[in-house]
């Protein structure tokens, strides 16, 4: 499959991305606690041959406040661990990529690495992973191992804040580095089962990673054999230069939030420049634009749905991603136009589940196929294959044969 | 009604009990192997599936140990995947409390409980060697004496987190627009020497409220921790006399914690070898022992006692005449110490070898090769039942030597006999693991919940 194929991901969260989604969704309001919910959504996405579903997560209650919960009783609160949800649906799907989010600020890189490697094993090479930074003081208090100040979202250029965010991303970078080294710490052919010498593994094909950093040190090797993809797909959500550089250094895929086609082109240029600056080797980042989508059969119906949702939420929708309100055909137009800015694809955030997901799978995808923008089915293979990313050579194997 | 037997299936571990050299030995990492064993256990109406954990590859003489099966999945992730291919089977994972944090583990276990419809269990282990700590932020500084203090605080904080969402927290009333019955659910706070944490938990109350807690550890502290906090113990005491003594000891500790004997189940890990005749079973058992103790493995186990490099010795030759080195640092790392007095043990082994005319490998098989139940299906069913009815255990965690088919025969041949004796279920009567184990509903621990 050529690299020019459009890549489509769907971001799953709760009953949809609009805060009032649960008010008009036909689903049981507690559905996100049940595995059937996630299996049904992933199955729907898979029938349309989407590249992947992403699963949101946080080490804090959903909240609009800068710290701790926000007192809302009219919105969905509470959620399950995204990585385990992904594992739960892996045996029930066959082709679609599964990309859960995990915080790397308070978690152990060793556990995260083995968990994602295991997701890759149980899904037959369909694992992805979005590391995220936990910058909230309330999250830090859940762990009690460090103090973080409350970040004022209106004063992100305050020097103390800039330093703190720089540190959190640097730590996250170390975490991804450890996770990736651990994935390589077993060579693919480490298991030998050599009865003559009594050896199960060739220990020369197992490697200490010997990582030492400012926040942690990790010895290795992993306890999990190298995952089927070698390196599961790492994605980052990025809105500005610090996370762009983080993505350029550490990720395979980046989700960005342009306002229009021109902005998308500017972001792509900034990310390509960041790749130069950090001396990225290997394939360039696959850049996917995030869009929050609210779809209906006519533009008026879509606008009406949006008004109804906003009315129920008694607030307008605030989102880091651009909101698209319209018909699937109009969205196909927009995708076609924005893609020319150098985007590899899109990550769509359905406003209401399952309604906006089924609009994507049953109306948008056929519209894109009619324009020859999207493949008809799965070519077979791993998530890396689907994204046109080669299976990377093992860094340690290269070392030991050098 | 006679005592009902608890049965669990242990996925073959990374030690020499697991035979990899056999033609029937399959992959220890392919998900299909996990599916096979879990489905076999569920076909046999087992209570739960069990996974061990080790967070650092074992080493001997400073090098990664290469003789045993090695490489396994992350416990929680594979259990979550298994929840998709089973419907009733409990899913128990060994998870080290020393290298995890309550908030994260509580949400993972509560998630597993939701994703499995109430089948999650946690085997709390506390290994805290600095060797393993080298893979973690925490490092290995936790003193041995503090391991169970941390574990007790950990379990108590975890249960508080599990209880932090009231049963009626989510109303989801579309008409009124009320999703929550009250704002900011999940409030918790634990302020102790090991953890000082507070805030809000993200996972609404799970089906079991408290996923089942198992404990594996044999020291007085470990037993006391189990008596205070656990629902079941995974023990090593697989002989009748040792089993009865352990059973009496642990059950007698419960009263002090305001608990009943039935509140804590005792489930030793055991192995089974079956044959059409007793002689055939004994023959098979002998063959398996030789597979488990290859010449290389025999020398390696000898080195662990001697604490010396013995690689030059003939595995079929006599034991070393030199005494074990008790002064140096242990050459084997990443496994529990097994020998209290190496010099005395070495003398016993030498005497035994001379008496029976055994070389190194045969001696090691003689002293280390333990097989709990060997015989015809009828004999094994009888002995297992006797073991349980005479209070040496409440059930068994079966440790097969082959992946993934190691329990096929047991399920086909022994389970029906236990059912005939009316000591094992003929269908699942509950849906949660607590129900399978007869544990009753979880009792809340938080003052906030109790007084609410
Ligand atoms: C039957 C049994 C199984 C165990 N399995 C594990 C395991 O899978 N992973 C682990 O880290 N420790 C395991 N342990 C070690 C115990 O959790 C504990 O750390 C060790 O026994 C020392 O504790 P103690 O001093 O109370 O005996 C096991 C112990 C027993 C008795």
UniProtKB/TrEMBL annotation, chain A:
Biological source species: Micromonospora andamanensis
Keywords: Flavoprotein, FMN, Monooxygenase, Oxidoreductase
InterPro entries cross-referenced by the UniProt entry: Diverse_substr_monoxygenases, Luciferase-like_dom, Luciferase-like_sf, NTA_MOA
Gene3D superfamilies, A to Z: Luciferase-like domain
The family this protein is said to belong to: Belongs to the NtaA/SnaA/DszA monooxygenase family.
Protein name stated in the entry: FMNH2-utilizing oxygenase
Domain Luciferase-like: residue ranges: 28-306
Top-level taxon in the UniProt lineage: Bacteria
Automatic annotation (TrEMBL), chain B:
Any GO molecular function: monooxygenase activity
InterPro entries xref list: Diverse_substr_monoxygenases (IPR051260), Luciferase-like_dom (IPR011251), Luciferase-like_sf (IPR036661), NTA_MOA (IPR016215)
Domain Luciferase-like: 23-390
UniProt keyword Flavoprotein, yes or no: yes
Alphabetic keyword roster: Flavoprotein, FMN, Monooxygenase, Oxidoreductase
Pfam families per record: Bac_luciferase (PF00296)
Keyword Flavoprotein assigned: yes
Transmembrane segments: none
Domain of life from the UniProt record: Bacteria
NCBIfam families associated with the record: FMN_nitrolo
Family: Belongs to the NtaA/SnaA/DszA monooxygenase family.
Full protein name: Nitrilotriacetate monooxygenase component A
The organism of origin for this protein: Micromonospora andamanensis
Classification lineage: Bacteria, Bacillati, Actinomycetota, Actinomycetes, Micromonosporales
């Amino acid at each position: 499959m050529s690299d020019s194929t459009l890549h489509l991901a769907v971001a799953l969260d709760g009953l949809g991305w609009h805060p009032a989604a649960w008010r008009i969704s036909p689903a049981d309001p507690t559905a996100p606690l049940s595995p059937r919910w996630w299996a049904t959504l992933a199955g729907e996405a898979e029938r349309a041959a989407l590249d992947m579903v992403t699963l949101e997560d946080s080490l804090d209650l959903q909240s609009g406040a800068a710290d701790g919960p926000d007192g809302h009783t009219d919105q969905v609160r509470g959620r399950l661990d995204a990585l385990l949800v992904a594992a739960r649906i892996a045996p029930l799907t066959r082709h679609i990529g599964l990309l859960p989010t995990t915080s790397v600020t308070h978690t152990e890189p060793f556990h995260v690495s083995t968990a994602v490697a295991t997701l890759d094993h149980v899904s037959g090479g369909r694992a992805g992973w979005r590391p995220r930074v936990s910058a909230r003081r309330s999250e830090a208090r859940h762990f009690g191992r460090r103090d973080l100040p409350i970040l004022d979202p209106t004063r992100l250029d305050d020097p103390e804040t800039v330093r703190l965010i720089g540190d959190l991303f640097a730590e996250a970078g170390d975490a991804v580095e450890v996770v990736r080294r651990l994935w390589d710490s077993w060579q693919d052919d480490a298991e030998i089962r050599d009865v003559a010498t009594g050896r199960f593994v060739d220990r020369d094909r197992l490697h200490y990673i010997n990582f030492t950093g400012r926040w942690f040190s990790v010895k290795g090797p992993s306890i999990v054999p190298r995952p089927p993809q070698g390196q599961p797909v790492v994605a980052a959500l990025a809105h500005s230069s610090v996370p762009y550089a983080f993505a350029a250094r550490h990720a395979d895929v980046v989700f960005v939030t342009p306002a229009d086609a021109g902005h998308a082109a500017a972001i792509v240029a900034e990310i390509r420049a960041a790749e130069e600056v950090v001396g990225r080797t290997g394939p360039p980042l696959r850049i996917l634009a995030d869009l929050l989508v609210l779809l209906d059969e006519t533009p008026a119906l879509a606008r009406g749905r949006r008004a109804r949702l906003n009315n129920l939420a008694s607030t307008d929708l605030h989102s880091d991603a651009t909101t698209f309100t319209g018909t699937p055909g109009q969205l196909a137009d927009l995708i076609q136009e924005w893609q020319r800015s150098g985007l590899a694809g899109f990550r769509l955030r359905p406003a209401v589940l399952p309604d906006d997901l089924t609009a994507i799978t049953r109306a948008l995808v056929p519209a894109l196929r009619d324009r020859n923008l999207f493949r008809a089915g799965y070519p077979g293979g791993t998530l890396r294959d689907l994204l046109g990313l080669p299976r990377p050579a093992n860094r340690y194997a290269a070392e030991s044969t050098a | 009604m006679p005592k009902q037997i608890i049965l669990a299936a242990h996925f073959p571990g990374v030690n020499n009990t697991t035979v990899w050299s056999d033609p029937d030995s399959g992959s220890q990492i392919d998900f299909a192997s996990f599916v096979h064993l879990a489905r076999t256990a569920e076909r046999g109406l087992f209570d739960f599936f069990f996974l061990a954990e080790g967070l650092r590859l074992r080493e001997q003489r400073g090098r990664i140990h290469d003789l045993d099966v090695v490489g396994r999945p992350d416990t929680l992730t594979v259990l979550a995947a298994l929840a998709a291919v089973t419907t009733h089977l409990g899913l128990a994972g060994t998870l080290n409390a020393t290298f995890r944090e309550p908030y994260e583990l509580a949400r993972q276990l509560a998630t597993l409980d939701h994703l499995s419809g109430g089948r999650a269990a946690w085997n709390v282990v506390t290994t805290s060697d600095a060797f393993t700590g080298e893979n973690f932020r925490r490092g290995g500084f936790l003193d041995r004496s503090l391991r169970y203090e941390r574990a007790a605080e950990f379990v108590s904080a975890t249960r508080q987190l599990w209880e932090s969402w009231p049963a009626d927290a989510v109303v989801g009333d579309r008409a009124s627009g009320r999703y929550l019955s009250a704002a900011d659910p999940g409030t918790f706070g634990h302020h102790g020497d090991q953890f000082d944490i507070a805030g809000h938990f993200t996972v609404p109350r799970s089906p079991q409220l408290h996923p089942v807690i198992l404990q594996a550890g044999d020291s007085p502290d470990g037993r006391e921790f189990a008596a205070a906090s656990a629902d079941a113990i995974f023990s090593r005491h697989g002989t009748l006399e040792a089993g009865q003594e352990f059973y009496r000891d642990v059950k007698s500790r419960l009263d002090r914690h305001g608990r009943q004997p039935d509140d804590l189940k005792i489930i030793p890990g055991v192995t089974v070898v079956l044959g059409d005749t007793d002689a055939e079973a004994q023959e098979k058992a002998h063959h398996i022992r030789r597979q488990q103790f290859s010449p290389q493995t025999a020398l390696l186990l000898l080195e662990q006692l001697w604490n010396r490099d013995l690689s030059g010795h003939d595995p079929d030759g006599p034991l070393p005449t030199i005494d074990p080195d008790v002064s140096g640092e242990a050459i084997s790392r990443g496994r529990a110490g097994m020998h209290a007095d190496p010099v005395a043990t070495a003398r016993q082994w030498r005497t035994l070898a001379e008496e029976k005319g055994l070389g190194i490998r045969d001696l090691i098989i003689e002293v280390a090769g333990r097989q709990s139940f060997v015989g015809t299906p009828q004999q094994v069913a009888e002995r297992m039942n006797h073991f349980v009815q005479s209070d040496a255990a409440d059930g068994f965690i079966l440790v097969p030597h082959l992946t993934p088919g190691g329990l096929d025969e047991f399920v086909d041949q022994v389970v029906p006999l236990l059912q005939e004796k009316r000591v094992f279920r003929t269908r699942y009567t509950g849906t949660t693991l607590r129900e399978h184990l007869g544990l009753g509903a979880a009792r809340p621990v938080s003052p906030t919940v109790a007084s609410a």
